[in-house]
Amino acid sequence: MATFLYRLGRFAFRRRHFVALFWVALLALAGAGAAGAPVAGNSSFSIPGTEAQKAFDLLEERFPGSSADGATARVVFKAPDGEKMTDAGHKAVVRDTVDVLGGGSEVAGVSDPYEGGGVSDNGSVAYASVTYKVSGMELEESSREALEAAAEDAREAGLTVEIGGDALQAVPETGTAEIIGIGIAAVVLVITLGSLLAAGLPLLTAIVGVGIGVASITALASTLDLGSTTSILASMIGLAVGIDYALFVVSRYRAELAEGRAREEAAGRAVGTAGSAVVFAGLTVVIALVGLSVVNIPMLTKMGIAAAGTVAVAVLIALTLIPALLGYAGRRVRPAGEKSKLLGGGRDTGGKKAERPNMGTRWASFVVRRPLAVLLLGVVGLGAAAVPATSLELGLPDDGSQPTSTTQRRAYDLLSDGFGPGFNGPLVVVVDAKGAGDPQAVFDRTGDDIKSLDNVVDVDPARPNKAGDTATITVIPDSKPSSVTTEDLVHDIRDTGAGIAADTGADVLVTGATAMNIDVSQKLNDALVPYLVLVVGLAFLLLIVVFRSILVPLKAALGFLLSVLAALGAVVAVYQWGWLAGLMGVEETGPIMSMMPIFMVGVVFGLAMDYEVFLVTRIREAYVHGENPRQAVVTGFRYSARVVTAAAVIMMAVFAGFIGSSDSMVKMIGFGLAVAVLFDAFVVRMAIVPAVLALLGDRAWWLPRWLDRALPNVDVEGEALSARDAAQDEDKELVRV
Hints:
The chain has about 725 residues and is of the alpha+beta class.
């Protein structure tokens, strides 16, 4: 591995014009594809294998033309204080609005509040439901503008009008905080590398990599049904790892220059050593992201594969474009320890500063002297941070989790006030009585049995299809959609349906957005353990090959579990309990997004292994070259602690930038990943890892002989390069003799 990458690095350095042209052409091609592609919207959501999805598919089959997957909007009207929506003047305004909305080319139908029971009991609130022929992703901007214009006309007539539903869902915006995150990353790079030019290389290559990845996703969005969130998450992860991977190669290049090597040789050795770590670190991230397909939720699978593709591009750029750009930079990228004149380089330090151990050396020396105390303190601290995770409640965001400044949230609140909290999460019961002798009797019995259940406010009469063999029944719960009580009601209806099926042969299925959310949460919970086993197992085997050890990969996996549990605890404390909610821009607390645990497990595991590989390969390199275990830890930290710390700060800054997103899911993921990197890099990798290695000593690198013989030698530490240098030195000595 090291020898191949060494040759690749030298080739990229020598043929830099060709390499640079290749990446520029690829970026231009992806950009052209993105420019000609439709704008990404919200991808269709399906959860194969669940009852809610089965019912949804049945509706598509038995109620053709009903646009079951079409966008919806609820236009909610509220009369001024002291007046009612049943007043003649307000009635006329609402009916005019309904007529205008019904004229849209993409509109499938509009309900009249005064004919379909759309007026609250006290008469203060009314609503009209608008259904569209196409999904929210396909809805034209003109239809959204017509919807908003109709609402504005009603407002001018004196009514309060708000719009809920998915018809107005906008592409999420990340805000200026993302730019601030990149700015922080730039400052950290300048401080770490001591040169504006050297600092600019990782930023430039990361932007190129993310540009290729996001442009490719945009170009394929319509074909593959990729939502806007997919590109945001890909850019979040791709930008973070792209900067970090490039930073490690540039840093190793400067270290090789400081050893007195020629620039082409230094580029080859940087790619052969740090590049090997980049390859395996990238592989762990890709495994973790692609492994999300195990959950069998198409949206999550697409998000994972898209982000994995962006990570793969970041790896390839670090191995090829970075050495090419180093070739262009020439002497303007200085050896490690030297700064540019602009940053104070060239001043005489009298040689004293160079002899002083750096911070990484001092910290590692402290840890190896008191490993047990550091280990206990780190484990107890992360354990305390993980405590809130025991109160984790899962759900999916709806209009009730939107900021109060949005029309969707205000419509949600108006409907709750007028019709009760459960009105925002109606349950749709689909009765398939095709095999029953008397379908109408089955429909009537189903409605009566559901009425007798607790927490039911209203049950609409069954609405059969034209064939009369299938019907829908709308059920309004007494509790809000995200509550545990509503979840219990869904299970009660399904239990009731099982009894009806046993007696009549008819299938009773529950669907709707609320039931979908419940099924997604259950599916994600069921998939978490198999996913952990698959991803951690594959990465464990990969790390055994990298480190040629059993205990080091085991320690890495256990440390990751501590990190992710602590990060989940922080997410619960902020987004569910409301701690520091104002500081984090959280306007509404509630259940944690259902996919958050499994998504964090995947992404955090990959990123945690990044730092493990970068840090421990340096330690193993020192150990392989003859140092005792404790001294190897100190040596590894001397060369890598500064760069790993900088990489972690950069990644935290990039992830934290997405906390400013307008999308609650992106906001929560940005916060969770930033906190996870903080815990994993600074507590687990920088404290617990050296403490455990110091306690284990030589046993840390133990590997059964039979396994050692069976494993391929990937040579991450560059032993082949060192052996080649030694052989060349020996040949030179023989020539002199």
